[in-house]
Design brief:
heterodimer, B: about 325 residues, mainly alpha, two-stranded antiparallel sheet, 14 helices, about 0% strand, transmembrane helix (chain B), cell membrane (chain B), ABC_transp_permease (chain B), membrane (chain B)
Chain lengths: ~525, ~325
């Protein structure tokens, strides 16, 4: 089959750091071609070369067999190339219709904006992506998934034949993702060439006709659909064999370290009871919005609890706040590293020691040599190969997450609560993070992991707590924790037999499970 | 979509290695280049400019604004602003002269002025940190009521020091042949530099300015940090007020009017981001020097006062514009 796009020997460096080292890549009409690889492996850079964002240092690009130079995004658009970036590129305060008309606004005879046509055009464009969106709504009122649909509609309206989707499902709900996949199928059938960049194996599995894996700025191989296996792709990505992605040694958990009793915010979360033992990983799973993050934050003291106690080694932790928790030996890796954990303008070193400065100073004066030593040691342990003075904002997502985790390893808490520890990181960094968690557990740290990645939660946990409606509704041992069992509890199917006491909860949540929720006594307030 | 992307795309390239680009070099030394260029220009246009005595003149004139800007840097690094520092100069100066005229020793009079400034800063800090009121509003209010206080303390009249003002050295004298305000300025900058670069408090200032929520979750007592920076801004403004009083040997209720803007300009010229988290104290120092050199040069060239204002304002906008142009190029 003839290639729609064919790129040969593409090379690109940024200030002496090679990002692409002679990459060949081809895209056929009517296929979905997935690109996989760790962050920084070169996938996005290659696509930005294709889209005219970066000029290549060397190499050729052919479209329909004809050599072209794409020296600007505008030229790319003219050649039928469109990229849907991870961070969407719309104007939030303008309406959907205005966004769709942006840059090519229809005018009336008098030169004024032709509002009627803007609206009519928008409806047509949205119909092409089968999106049921009111074009008069301001963009910001739409969910991320719908905004993405608008962007795709816009690309199609510009007659894009080559569409690059960079991590399109990162912020989508399951339903939105399914809708996107249906649209991708349709565009493929229409003969478009689609490039799909993703870390998610299942999606690639489901969608891709071919997969190309990148490592260190090189393409390490393209596989046809029939040859794709997760093991093969992972091995190609990290350049070594992975027996089992999820590291789980046999362990014998020790004494109870953390005991939570009746913790509630009085507004739908809790009461929650749970215990963590030294040297175990406990997974906290549930559907999005079930209240896992809220529970984690309340234990840490990031949000205030209305009632309930937290005991560490049998002693109650009073006046709970992040500062107190850290002093007592509880750490929290928050859900969003960008918004809640990272100091992007500060160096790796300063980010690593932020929570441990008390011990690394004398009378408030920094012990700089000690800080340098600690940072050096942590970076070795984390396997981050950068200068300690490097600004964290410039690191890849995986390395940023390792730095945030490293901050806690520097503190060395007894209890570590990890909220989505591997969200948005590539598979190599994931593996590293599992390894680091395991090291902590081996030292007797009690770890509570909140994860939306069910295989991950089940793979690394000794026990799993299922959260629904702000409460722990089931506790499953590693041996009985299957995805099916968890989903039954998480969706409430397992409890549908006794819905009669649902009136004890406030609001419209269906919560009536008393199968395994521990003590449900102690009403909020 | 794709057509608006290129400006910020390249910097996101996750090359985990520092590579000094033109932008970074300019970031670090650009403002120094501006200062040197300005000095060279002035030296050519105004022949007296490069003389030693004029150098001391500039330094002396710069010192009060520079001291003010040092404290302002701390506040702006946390993402805040302190508009009240100019009025603190008035209150603190008047207080110190009142104390002197009441017969207290010079040292007590000086400390009294500084303490009044610190107290004003403490109140700002309490309102900003613990009541979570917007800094702009809190300090705008303080700008007004502190000025009112300065007038009330003196019935609106300049307060002449009785006899020879005991601490006039702070404004006029020399310490080892160096003008004493310059010495005070240097000590202030060394102290602020030490706080920012060598103490946990300094790390916390950058952390709070860089990401408040992350700072809180990392166990930093954010409110305490905010309280302290406003306190310190008040304290340095109090010091500047005493220096002012010493220089004019009287308590002027109108002293320091509009100085907050020059201080903010020095901080921003020095490359500190008004959004917080990014900036260095030596940048502020250079920024204050630029403003001083510019004023001095314009005076030597006999440029009319109104024209001076126009030029100063334009230079600030252009310099900050160049700075953000750099951000636009590289990131």
């Amino acid at each position: 089959m003839a290639s729609l796009v064919s790129m040969e020997g593409v090379t690109k460096s940024f200030g002496g750091a090679p990002a692409l080292r002679g990459v060949d890549f081809d895209l056929r009409a009517g296929e979905v071609h997935a690109l996989m690889g760790e962050n920084g492996a070169g996938k996005s850079t290659l696509m930005k070369v294709l889209a005219g964002v970066h000029a290549p240092d060397a190499g050729t690009i052919r479209i329909d067999g004809e050599q072209v130079t794409v020296s600007s995004p505008i030229e790319a658009t003219a050649l039928g190339i469109a990229i849907i970036h991870q961070e969407l590129n719309t104007v939030p305060d303008m309406t959907v219709a205005e966004n769709l008309a942006l840059g090519a606004e229809p005018r009336t005879r008098w030169g004024a904006l032709d509002r009627k046509r803007v609206l009519r055009d928008a409806e047509e464009k949205l119909a092409r992506v089968r999106a049921d969106i009111d074009p008069r709504l301001p963009m910001r009122r739409l969910s991320v998934g719908r905004q993405q649909m608008v962007e795709i509609a816009r690309a199609l309206a510009e007659d894009a034949r080559i569409l690059v989707l960079d991590e399109p499902t990162a912020a989508l709900s399951d339903r939105e993702a399914r809708r996107l996949f249906a649209l991708i199928d349709e565009m493929r059938s229409a003969g478009m060439g689609l490039v799909y960049i993703s870390h998610r194996m299942e999606e690639v599995w489901q969608l891709a006709d071919r997969v190309t894996v990148f490592r260190d700025g090189r393409s390490v191989g393209t596989s046809e659909k029939a040859e794709i296996t997760p093991e093969r792709v992972v091995t190609q990505m990290i350049g070594r064999n992975v027996e089992d992605l999820y590291v789980h040694d046999d362990r014998a958990p020790g004494e109870v370290v953390l005991r939570v009793r009746g913790l509630t915010d009085g507004a739908g979360i809790g009461p929650v009871d749970l215990t963590l033992r030294a040297g175990e990983v406990v997974g906290m799973v549930g559907l999005i919005g079930a209240g896992r993050t809220e529970i984690a934050r309340m234990i840490y003291g990031a949000d205030r609890a209305r009632a309930g106690t937290v005991e560490l080694d049998g002693r109650p932790v009073d006046r709970r706040s992040p500062a107190t928790s850290i002093r007592e030996g509880i750490g929290l890796l928050p859900e969003s590293r960008k918004q809640q954990a990272l100091f992007p303008l500060m160096s790796i070193r300063d980010n690593l020691v932020t929570s441990a400065l008390g011990g690394l100073s004398r009378l408030g004066v920094l012990r700089r040599r000690a800080i340098g030593d600690v940072a050096h040691r942590q970076m070795d342990a984390l396997r981050i190969r950068s200068a300690p003075t490097q600004e964290v904002g410039h690191l890849s997502g995986g390395n940023q997450q390792k730095v945030v985790l490293g901050r806690w390893l520097t503190v060395g808490p007894r209890v570590l609560i990890l909220d989505e520890p591997t969200r948005g990181v590539d598979i190599g960094a994931k593996y590293e993070i599992y390894r680091l968690i395991n090291e902590q557990v081996a030292r007797g740290v009690a770890v509570l992991v909140v994860s939306s990645d069910l295989p991950e939660a089940l793979g690394i946990s000794d026990r799993v707590l299922v959260v629904r409606g702000g409460r722990i509704v089931a506790e499953l041992d590693r041996s009985e924790a299957t995805e099916e069992a968890v989903m039954l509890h998480a969706t409430g199917v397992a409890a549908s037999g006794d819905q009669t006491n649902g009136d004890r909860t406030n609001g419209d949540r269906t919560n009536g499970d008393r199968t395994n929720g521990g003590t449900n006594g102690g009403t909020p307030g | 979509m794709t057509r608006t992307a290129p400006a910020d795309a390249s910097a996101r390239e996750p090359a985990d290695r520092p590579r000094p680009s033109f932008g970074q070099v300019w970031d670090r030394y650009g403002i120094l280049v501006v200062l040197l260029a300005m000095v060279a220009l002035m030296a050519v246009i105004a022949p007296n400019f490069l003389s030693l005595s004029n150098g001391f003149n500039v330094a002396r004139a710069v010192s009060i604004n520079a001291v003010l800007a040092a404290g302002m840097t701390l506040v702006i690094l946390t993402g805040g602003i302190d508009l009240s520092v100019g009025s603190v100069i008035g209150v603190a100066g008047v207080t110190s002269v009142l104390l002197w005229n009441a017969g207290t020793p010079a040292l007590v009079a000086v400390l009294g002025g500084i303490v009044v400034g610190a107290a004003a800063g403490l109140l700002n800090g309490l309102l900003v940190a613990y009541l979570a009121l917007p800094a702009f509003i809190v300090t705008l209010g303080a700008l007004t009521y502190l000025r009112g206080t300065a007038y009330a303390l003196t019935d609106g009249q300049p307060l002449i020091a009785e006899g020879e003002l005991g601490f006039r050295l702070l404004g006029n004298g020399n310490i080892a042949a160096i003008p004493s305000p310059v010495v005070v300025m240097v000590i202030t900058y060394v102290a602020v530099w030490f706080i920012l670069e060598r103490t946990t408090f300094g790390r916390h200032i950058y952390a709070v300015g860089g990401n408040v929520e992350a700072a809180r979750l990392a166990g930093i007592k954010v409110r305490r940090v905010l309280l302290k920076v406003y306190l310190l801004a008040g304290l340095t403004a109090g010091l500047a007020g005493v220096m002012f009083a010493a220089r004019v040997e009287s308590g002027q209720p109108r002293a320091g009017e509009g100085y907050e803007l020059d201080a903010i300009a020095a901080v921003v010229l020095g490359g500190t981001s008004l959004f917080g988290g990014r900036g260095r104290i030596h940048g502020t120092f250079v920024g204050a020097l630029i403003i001083g050199v510019l004023s001095n040069g314009l005076v030597l060239m006999n440029v009319p006062f109104f024209t001076q204002l126009i030029i100063k304002g334009a230079v600030i906008v252009v310099a900050v514009g160049l700075d953000s142009l750099k951000n636009w190029r590289s990131g």
